[in-house]
Specification:
The complex is a heterodimer of chains A (about 400) and B (about 130). Chain A has about 400 residues and is an alpha+beta fold. In chain A, about 25% of the residues lie in helices and about 30% in strands. In chain A, strands 1, 2, 3, 4, 5, 6 and 7 form a seven-stranded antiparallel beta sheet that branches. Chain A has a five-stranded antiparallel beta sheet with strand order 11-12-10-13-14. The two termini of chain A are about 35 Å apart. The relative contact order of chain A is 0.09. Chain B contains three helices and six strands, in the order βαβαβββαβ. In chain B, β4 and β5 form a beta hairpin. The termini of chain B are far apart. Classes of the chains: A alpha+beta (about 400), B alpha+beta (about 130).
Chain lengths: ~400, ~130
Amino acid sequence: MKKIDFCEDVENLNIIHIFEYYDHPLFYIAQNSHLDNFLFYFIDDEPFSTWLVSQVSMNEISIVRNRQVGVKTFLNRLFKRKRLFKIHIDEGKILDDLTSVLTEDNIDSYDFPEDDFEVEFDYISNTDLQKQEVLTSEEPKYLKLIFKDEDNSHSIPASVFKSVIANLEDYINYTTKHLNQESKIPSLNLLALPASSFGAEFEVILEEEIDLDQISSKVTQSLVSFIGELDLVNEKELSDQIFIEERFTPKQVKAIQKITEDAIDSGYDLIVETQDKDKNPIASSDITRLNRGKINKIDTALRLNNRHNSEIVEIDATVVAVNLKSKVFWLDISDLDDKSKFENRNDFHGKIDDELLDKLKDNNNPITINVPSKILARIKIDTIFDFTLPKTKDHKYSLLSFSE
Amino acid sequence: MEFKAENLPGNCPPNDGVKSPLNNIYRLVKDIDNISETDFLTHVESKQRFPPSLECEANALSFFTTEKAADNIRKRVKKFKGYSIVCGNIEDDKGIHTNKNKHINFWLAKDTNIYEEFCNIQRSDNE
């Protein structure tokens, strides 16, 4: 289950915006020392101080501050994504037993505002908040990629172009799934190559009658805006947009990273441009060899969320093989009801823990492990999340002890 | 001016606080037929906790300059949904206040009971 973790005392958080105030802040944003941002919306103070809380990205705060969304709509958006928690605070301490993520089963509509109001004032900066309209541009029809080397040549190695297209297709796949899990994947059509440095025009298309959410336009638009916004955000903000706001997925941004790396590492600046139905430019953004740091931002943003969890479980298993020299064991778990901790496989292998290995090798008082034999095994599972790698989640297993 | 709240932090009330009469200002009360002093206690007086950075503000009472602003709080926060809005005036010798975005923070002068200032309470039509 998702948890909310302030990493420090809730009272020590640094309040950066207050939008509603009456005797005390009723709706505010606070930041911890890691620059994680949390939204607090007051509910009641009887019997405990009770709040709706969610970790939010700077991008989301800007959307609220710029009055591009009503507060009720925004809270509902967090609720639908299972990001909204109800917390109770007593004497400055959060009552963990009463903390829960809001779901259809425990939501109380009275906890939410009646009206979908927009924020008007920030009591921290003492500023009136002006409404900034969301700029809507024409829906793009075409996507143009321009590869520019120092000679402005009209050619590109086929292998580079092939790799860019493969990664572009990955990007389309991941972005479509992120926008709508049920949608068909738009196809990528390469149009006749126009004269330019080396320009390639594409059409990202879905049959009109099934592209009800304008998926193909959004996929095209998102690529150009993501590369453009890399100039505006720092690594932490980008990381929050990926892992907190879930505006993009790690796979999506890695595909963009590969597209841009392919070009830059082969000596090309890359310009991406959206075009309307008459092939007039709508928007463009670029990554040049001189600002390669933009790509590194993606890597750092992904790395910021890398983590490592450990847990110890006991399972019934059959010993398939043991090699004391290489410290490796193999276990069969086909009879285990819940294999989810073992990637749903029927067998797995891992390292024998050093302490157990010493006991197995002890000539004076050896313990033995028979092959095959049924054992109750105590296994340590290390789960490593590295979002910079193709396989973002990896498990390592250690056999700590066993009994036959 | 000496204040009702003891041990106010430095620069509290803030430099932009003013001493001037306030007419037709609004506050929320729990039970309009049984208004009491407890409806006019600051966050500190009612022994509620507050973020340390807001110690000065926690020693002030909130009012609104429009009935609509007070009503907005009723609509937006569950605690205040059943509350009533009362309207009153405060003379200039009763304390210092700041006024931002229709919200007033009022630091009461010593020996002042704001509840008595609201004796001539008007029931809000907006209930």
